[in-house]
């Protein structure tokens, strides 16, 4: 029988006693057990080097656990084939710490890229991409290339690209790391709005001010172990 969470939903992602080590190094994640529910909002936090980025890599199937089980949309990550991984990833949006925008493409083309890769014609998504870029405040930066964008503008372009396909989960690695407090608050409002529209949000951060602004579940990593603080 399919295992279901306390809320009656099947979780989108499930970690069961997960351990991770790089090569022959020490285990940097140990016995990590948690689930990501549909429509949920959580922070992954903990000191520098605690394993936040590594946890996101496991969530995005860029890494496989060295022990325990990671289940993504009901599929065991350990046995996911090379053809299954991209199919699962299409349901996950990710914002990398270093944005990874393509410099030879305009902001519009960067955001439209995931749809173009899926084979959709430009006419089918032009309206959606333009609307989303306006929504994140980049309406006047659509036709410039990333090198002339500020850090915060790049951040918003990366977020727009991550959500243009309406993923079920959005993973963001230190999304407020390079921006000033007013922009950090704006980005947080953007995540909250996306969450209201149904996307599950996972934000890796050590920005305590950010977490204090919007109370949500905290998955706290420390010495490889995870402590979970639910909102009461
Ligand atoms: N590719 C790798 N090979 C070997 N060790 C790695 C690799 N990536 C990360 N590590 C180690 O794993 C541990 C966790 O790193 P990770 O980047 O996941 O932490 P973090 O919590 O995201 O840190 P920060 O907040 O500083 O970004 C660190 O000790 C790091 O040195």
From TrEMBL:
Chief location bin: membrane
Membrane topology annotation: Peripheral membrane protein
Domain ABC transporter: 13-231
InterPro entries per record: AAA+_ATPase, ABC_transporter-like_ATP-bd, ABC_transporter-like_CS, ABC_transpr_LolD-like, Cell_div_FtsE, P-loop_NTPase
Keyword set includes Nucleotide-binding: yes
Family from the record: Belongs to the ABC transporter superfamily.
Assembly, per entry: Homodimer. Forms a membrane-associated complex with FtsX.
Protein name: Cell division ATP-binding protein FtsE
Organism classification: Bacteria, Pseudomonadati, Pseudomonadota, Alphaproteobacteria, Hyphomicrobiales
Encoding gene (name): ftsE
């Amino acid at each position: 029988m399919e295992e279901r969470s306390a809320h009656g939903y099947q979780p989108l992602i499930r970690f069961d006693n997960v351990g991770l080590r790089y090569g022959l190094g020490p285990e940097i994640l140990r016995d990590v057990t948690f689930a990501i529910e549909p429509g949920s909002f959580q922070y992954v936090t903990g000191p520098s080097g605690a394993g936040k980025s590594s946890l996101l890599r496991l969530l995005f199937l860029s890494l496989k656990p060295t022990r325990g089980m990671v289940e993504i949309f009901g599929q065991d990550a350990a046995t996911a084939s090379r053809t299954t991984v991209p199919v699962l990833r299409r349901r996950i949006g990710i914002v990398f710490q270093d944005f990874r925008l393509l410099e030879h493409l305009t902001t519009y083309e960067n955001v439209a890229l995931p749809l173009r890769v899926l084979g959709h014609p430009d006419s089918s998504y032009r309206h959606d991409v333009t609307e989303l870029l306006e929504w994140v405040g980049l309406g006047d930066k659509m036709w410039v290339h990333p090198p002339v964008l500020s850090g915060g503008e790049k951040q918003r372009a990366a977020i727009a690209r991550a959500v243009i396909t309406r993923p079920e989960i959005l993973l963001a690695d230190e999304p407020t790391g390079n921006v000033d407090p007013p922009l950090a608050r704006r980005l947080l409002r953007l995540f909250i709005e996306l969450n209201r529209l149904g996307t599950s949000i996972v934000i890796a951060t050590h920005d305590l001010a950010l977490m204090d602004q919007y109370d949500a579940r905290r998955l706290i990593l420390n010495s490889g172990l995870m402590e979970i603080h639910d909102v009461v």
